[in-house]
Amino acid sequence: MTEPILSVRGLSVSYGRVQAVRDVTFDVPRGGLVTLVGANGAGKSSIINAISGVLRPSAGTVRFNGADTTRTPAHTLVRKGLVQVPEGRQILATLTIEENLQLGAWHTDGSRTAEVYERFPVLADRRTLLAGSLSGGEQQMLAIGRALVAEPSLMLLDEPSMGLAPRVVDEVFAVIEAIRASGTSVLLVEQNARRALRAADYGYVLSSGELVQSGPGDELLADEGIVAAYLGLERD
Ligand code: ATP
Fold this sequence. Notes:
By secondary structure, the protein is an alpha/beta fold.
């Protein structure tokens, strides 16, 4: 069996005395699309940020591409191909679209930029405009584009559908599935559980900082007990 691109073992995250994540273990297979779903405050962002080196876990290990990266700083992980699309997009509104993409490609020759413009014509057409002039959905495409120019082998996406209209959510999920189809592994955390589980090969349900269920996305969705207990309030 080939080694997973990401292996998380016994991960815990604390903020002072608040334990936000407790003993979380899961893998992302190479080329896979795995999702962690859970309600607001379940600990999804804390897990993503601990994997990407943005924050330091209080216990557990993270292995990326066969190496222990638990204490590797975020910028080093980006160079190694682990790239995060942060919650709330975090684009730089007062820089142009082109400048945002240049920042994403800081450690490369920027050769993926043409591909990103091809994938997102709206960004190409408006490349000299300020990123703040884009709609919410377009800003999410820019955030994803900024991660793509960094040449990820594993992309971490933190609630990419947040605050977007259903039609735009469809577009974002189509982009995520295309990214995975092109060979990049994906770890997606989402509150929009139905949507995320439909897109993913495998899903984990997170509740109050702990993984409570896991399985193929369609099986989790077909389980009425899980849907009622954890996913019942999600919009379709
Ligand atoms: P959201 O959808 O709101 O981002 P989430 O599932 O991503 O939720 P986290 O943001 O990881 O959840 O938060 C998990 C828990 O940790 C919550 O109880 C939250 O209040 C707490 N928490 C998160 N960040 C901090 C912080 N910087 N200081 C203290 N507590 C925090």
